[in-house]
Amino acid sequence: MTIDVTDIPSGIESVELVRLLEEIAAGAAERERLRIAPHEQIRQLGRAGLGALRVPRAHGGAERSLRDLFAFVIRLAAADSNIAQSLRAHYHFVEGRLASADQAQRDRWLPEVVRGTIFGNATVERTTRDIFGFETTLTPSANGDGSHVLSGTKYYSTGSLYADRVTVAAMLPDGSVGSAIVPADRDGVTLEDDWDGMGQRLTASGTSRFEDVLVAADELLPSPIGRAAAAPRSAFLQLYLVAVMAGIVRNAATDAARMARERRRTFSHASGELPRVDPLVQQVVGRIASDAFACEAVVLAAAAGLDAAAASAGSTADGAPDPDAVHEGALLTAQAQVVVAELAPRAAELLFDAGGASATSREQNLDRHWRNARTIASHNTAMYKARAIGDLLINEERLPTNGFF
Q: Element (H or E) spanning 375, and its range?
């Protein structure tokens, strides 16, 4: 299926897109329960051009706003949150090229995005104390052509199992961090599906090994790690996870309404003859749906703030975004996370009040909503975001700039 992404309206609606997301949603619960990796579904999204939503029209993309992108991420996460999170590194890679002042980077990589190439991630290591400290190395090869040799082991390599290329952070001989953009099937690359988290089980967030992998000169980019950010990309990464949680709540609301509609038995002391006419069950479903609305609203408000920060590029002497606009975008993102990290697991738990004991059947796999929401919420604990927001309001202490806001 091919979708004309330049024609998708602001609400991210089209007949073809709705049909594709329905197809993805139809098998999501079973894939997660049986651990069936969604290779084909992610390929479909790439072929449909949805990886190029943010690519400029001059390069063949849709040139959509960040708000539009996050609206799509919520819709995709409502269909399958594993797939949505698996594409986080891909969309971040695109943002990096859009933020770069190097036109050659855009000319080299954006056409690949438009052709459907999916980019994965291999950044964090388990053996280092500093999350941005790496034992993985890039050393000049003996070829003398600017190529390097990549060696090391990564974990939390979300999405790389489904990717065509993997973006690998590694130390260069001069002590700086570089990014190697290597094909996933190149000699020396091993991608393992060994993520053992209780939730988001199909994000392939496990081990990636790189054993003397040859990296061509045009596959090596400067990494944003350890450098001044050219755009509010750290906030982008945080808001992406919040958008996935918002999609999970939307999915939970759909499942809660379906269960209430389809159930034919209720408690002998219930408030209605059938669950669908029981006012208490109706109240639960309405509460989950309201939580879904709230989650989506705060994500899109924060996304608009990131759009404003990106639009401020060029307003400063060095051409970088306005620091105050970047700070405001980070603040909105942190506030969104505090709200959604509380609402999402609660909404996923309320679902069982609408379904009763039968909702706990492993066949239905409805517990995945809570497990997935809680797993994502654990990535960057909201209590630290709330504390930083409080410090800002009380003491006018600006938010941290450590890559996690």
A: helix 367-377
Say how far apart CA 3 and CA 60 lie, in whole Å. Answer: 13
Residue in this structure with the two tokens 């990564």, named with its chain if needed: 154
Asked if 370 and 192 count as a contact pair (C-beta separation under 8 A), the reply is no
For strands 119-122 and 165-171, give the pairing: parallel
Give the other-Cβ count within 10 Å of 229's Cβ. 16
Paired tokens of 211: 């054993």
Q: Regarding the domain delimited by 233-395, which CATH topology (the fold level of the hierarchy) does it fall under? A: Butyryl-CoA Dehydrogenase, subunit A; domain 3 (1.20.140)
| In the chain, where the domains are located | 5-117, 122-222, 233-395
Span 5-117 CATH architecture: Orthogonal Bundle (1.10)
> In this structure, what are the phi and psi dihedrals at residue 140, rounded to the nearest 5 degrees?
-55, 135
The CATH architecture annotation of domain 122-222 reads Beta Barrel (2.40)
Matching CATH topology for 122-222 and 233-395? Answer: no
Best CA proximity match to 295, nearest among 233, 331, 241, 236: 241
pLDDT by 10s per residue, the chain, length 405: 444 444 444 434 577 899 999 999 999 999 999 999 999 999 999 999 999 999 999 999 999 999 999 999 999 999 999 999 999 999 999 999 998 889 999 999 999 999 999 999 999 999 887 777 899 999 999 998 999 999 999 999 999 999 999 999 999 999 999 999 999 999 999 999 999 999 999 999 999 999 999 999 999 999 888 765 545 788 999 999 999 999 999 999 999 999 889 887 676 575 767 777 889 989 999 999 999 999 999 999 999 999 999 999 866 666 788 999 999 999 999 999 999 999 999 999 999 988 888 889 999 999 999 999 999 999 989 999 999 999 999 999 999 988 778
What six digits make up the tokens of 128? 């280092």
Report yes or no: 31 and 202 within 8 Å, Cβ to Cβ: yes
